[in-house]
Amino acid sequence: MDRVGLVKVGLLWIAVVASALAVTHYSHICRQTYGQLTAMQREANQLQVEYGRYLLEQSAVGSLQRVEATATDGLKMHTPEADEIVMIKQ
């Protein structure tokens, strides 16, 4: 083999090694990114569950029966009778 052929083989060898290093580097980056993705998906699922619980709690706290029971039992309120209603004119 002459000198030009050795240079070509050497350059080809350097290109192959550089390509292999690039593949391993980007494979590592892909694995890290995929790990971040799965962590974010896990967090999104937890937040979705929390949001569902929040909606259930909100509907339970704001339900008309609960408000009425709290007003009647806790605050001793009642619906006024007809003779208890006073009309005020301005």
Question: What are the main properties of this structure?
Answer:
90 residues; mainly alpha
Concise description?
The chain is mostly helical.
Per the principal axes of the C-alpha atoms, what is the gross shape? rod-shaped
| Helical residues, percent | over 70%
Largest sheet: none
Flag low-confidence runs. Answer: none
Treating each run of at least 4 consecutive H or I residues as one helix, how many helices? 2
Number of strands: 0
Portion of residues in beta strands equals under 5%
Q: Compute the average pLDDT.
A: 92
The CA-CA distance between the termini, in Å, is 113 Å
Return the string of H and E elements: HH
Structural class: mainly alpha
What is the radius of gyration?
37 Å
Explain the overall architecture.
With about 90 residues, the chain is mainly α. It has a domain at about 30-80. Helices cover about 80% and strands about 0% of the residues. The chain contains two helices and no strands. The protein has helices spanning about 5-60, 65-75. The radius of gyration is 37 Å and the shape is rod-shaped.
